[in-house]
Amino acid sequence: MNALAAEDIAPHSLEDLSVFAAVEAWIFDLDNTLYPRDSNLFVQIDERIRRYVGDLLNVDETEAHRIQKEFYERHGTSLRGLMLEHDVDVDSFLEFVHDIDRSALAPAPELAAAIARLPGRKFIFTNGSRAHAEQTATQLGLSDHFEDIFDIVAADLLPKPREETYRRFIERYDIAPSKAAMFEDLSRNLLVPKDLGMRTVLVVPSGTREVFHAEWEMEGHDGAEHVDFVTDNLAAFVSEIVTARGA
Questions:
Q1: Average pLDDT, the chain
Q2: In whole angstroms, what is the distance from residue 247 CA to residue 220 CA?
Q3: DSSP letter at 37?
Q4: CB 214 within 8 A of CB 4
Q5: pLDDT of 152-169, one tens digit each?
Q6: Contacts of 87 (CB under 8 A, 6+ apart)
Q7: Greater confidence, 125 or 68?
Q8: What secondary structure letter does DSSP report for 9?
Q9: Do both 29 and 111 map to the same domain?
Q10: Do you know which PANTHER family this protein is assigned to (predicted)?
Q11: Same-domain pairing of 80 and 191
Q12: Is there a domain that residue 1 lies in?
C-alpha cells in the first residue's frame, strides 16, 4: 500500500460535521471499532476460529487458516461458510470462538463520556455474538450507553455486508437511514449504509488515517465515495460531533 500525502484525506472541520445535525440513531460496529485494533482482541478470536476449523476438519494450522480466510472472503464470515458447507452448530461455534481473555482491554472512559453525550438512540451492530458484545462493552465501560445489540443471531446468521442484514436492523428498530450514522472499521461494511442514506465513518488504526484511501481503491471500489469521514481516534471524533451539534 502506498502512503498518500495528508492533504489527500483532508482534515475535517466542525463545519463539515454539520452533516450529523439531523442524526437520531448512532450505530457502532464492535470489534476493532469500539476498541483499538492494537488491543489484539480480535487476534484471539481469529486464532480460535482457526483452531475450530482445524479441529472440525482435522487439518493442520496452515490448511485451517486457508479455509478460514476462503470462507471469510466468499461468505462474509467464516461461520457462514462453515454453516453452508459443514452444517456446524452455530451456538457451539460462537461460544468457542468468543471464549477469549478480555482482561488486557483497557476501559475507555473518554469514549464512554463522548457516546453518552450523543443525543438520540445508540446501538452496537456486530457480526459477532451478543454475549461477546456484552462482555466486551462491559470491559470497556460502555455497556450502559447502548439501547440494544444487534448480533449475528439477530441478523438470522447473515453477516454484514449483506444488504438484507442492514434492512433487517433498520426494520427492527424503526430507523430512518437518512437520520442515522454508522461507524465501522471495514470499508466494505459501509457501502450499503451509504447507499441507504446513512452518514458513514471509517475507524482506522492509530496513525494510519492518511494511507487508507489506497486500501479503498485496492478493494475495487470507485474511490471512497461511500465513506464520509475517516478517523483514527473514535473518542475525539465523537466529541467533535457533540461539539458541532452544540450538545
A1: 87
A2: 38
A3: G
A4: yes
A5: 999 999 999 999 999 999
A6: none
A7: 125
A8: G
A9: yes
A10: HALOACID DEHALOGENASE-LIKE HYDROLASE
A11: no
A12: no
